[in-house]
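Q: Could you predict the 3D structure of EF-hand domain containing 1?
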Amino acid sequence: METVSNSGHDLPFLPGYSFNDPTKTTFPRSQTLGYRNGYACSVLPVGASKECLHVNQLFQEMKNKKPTPTYEESKQVPPSEFVPAHVAFDKKVLTFDAYFQEDVPMSTEEHYRIRKVIMYYYLEDDSMSITEPIVENSGIPQGKFIKRQRLPKNERGDHYHWKDLNRGINLVIYGKTFRIVNCDPFTEVFLESQGIELNPPEEMALDPYTELRKNPPRMFVTPSDFDQFKQFLTFDKKVLRFYAIWDDTDRMFGETRNYIILYYLADDTVEVREVHERNDGRDPFPVLVKRQRLPKILVENSKSFPRCVLEVSDQDVQEWYTAKDFAVGKPVTMLGRTFFIYDCDKFTRDFCRDKFGLPEFPTIDVSKKPPPVIKQELPPYNGFGLIEDSAQNCFALIPKPPRKDIIKMLMGDNKVLRYRAVLESPIPEDKGRHFIFSYFLATDMVSIFEPPVRNSGFFGGKFLTKTKIAKPGSSLDKPSFYGPGDFYIGALIEVFGHRFIIQDADEYVLKYLESHADKYPQSTILSLKNHFSKPKSKTEESDSAPTPENVEMETVIKHIQERFKNCISLLEGPVYEAFQVLDKENTGSVDREKFCGVCKNFNIPVGDFLINELIRLCSSDKGKINYNNFIKAFS
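A: Sure. Here are the predicted structure tokens for EF-hand domain containing 1:
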């Protein structure tokens, strides 16, 4: 086996038997990076130390071995020298002189200005930068205008190249148009060497405001013969007072407002004051336009002058407002607002008559006339819901519930007139169906209830909820509803396409109608009297004959109502609906367990002996409880 001398001992060259030399102090590494033909590349490691480099020797030998031609060795063409762009064009920059025009909208002395810039094109990476020379006391932030970057040429993603640059052309950079006028000698030589024909140089544009400041125009003003001091002494404390109105009703939420226009004769100034009324809802700012000279006609070039920012000078005004421009019955437009003068004081009338020869100013009546009364017409009733509820949508954006008759509700509270009726129908199955009409005197509403009958084929229960029933043939806009006077024995009541015939009523109905005989027809009262005075037939007597169980149940119900009238406050409807939900077959009875659950939910004291006695009387042999008889105790 081959052995290797390691640390002075001959050991076999096996894993675990090789050791590093502890006497070695230098660990050199060979260079792996270099340049070849101007490009940075990696170089295979060459052993710089005495150690053996662990490389693939077969790959190294095959790489270093060059094939020899069979007949003659070929001559290799020497590679061309390659120089990178950052080396060839290092510190070589093309320089151009240019300018761009900038608008000046907030000045009356200059409309635009010329700003000179220097454009640099770096050949090293085709980037550009724009610099504006700093001008002392210019008031404009100058210096670096666009930092060095590749400037976009179009929306396709192209960038400006030195081939696109020339003298006498326009460059659009980021929305600004730059005009190139000249370049330096190096730029000129470079572009010509690349075969670009340069345009002749141009003169740099001059800034008009800068030239104006170099040679300011001399203006000579001839002194006026008008003596302002004499005018002040003559018309001091003499003011013309006009009463005007501003009509802004053409605008949304506009109105008419009163103003006082004061014209000071001492210096021809105008002041507009606002007339405030008590509780007018406006801030107490008396002055609308402060005392100043108001321009009447501006110079043609000064129409777009920003008067809200800068003051108007004499050069911008062609004519000012004077005392002749104000007269009663004449509109005056001041600062974009038109005032109508309808009156003035006595001094103003005398001054205009003596100074200008104007006739006596009449007083114009501008008082507000009451608007015509518009009768509100409701749209036709569509038949859905109550007409009072539908009408509230026309009175307000957010409808409110209709106002109720509180006196009627208090007088008719808990007063219900009950009638028994049968359904008039050609269908044989509808014969024998009985209904109970309940007329609520507090709201004039009617509800219909059908007592459930076992094995009748009809569910029974609530047939119509509380609502007002309109009489057939009445108009939709002003319908007439059924009242207690329409429910007499044998009356035909039509309810939404169903026809009912009244056959019976409670005795309370007759007592109530007799106590209010002046409000209801005598024929209705007479029909009820005849009905109750007529002797009953044997069938009716047998049907209405009380049984011992019924007498006992009525006695228990009466005791329950007297005992728990102040303790239990239950509504018949919710309890009955709860039992109907459990009674899916509409048999009128439910299981004892379900019955106790409903009583527990409505806090009915099932443990009381009267309640237990009532449950016993309502129970059947099959273990079910008739909830119809049970609910009578709480109705």
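Q: Anything worth pointing out?
A: Residues 373 and 522 are 44 Å apart (CA to CA).
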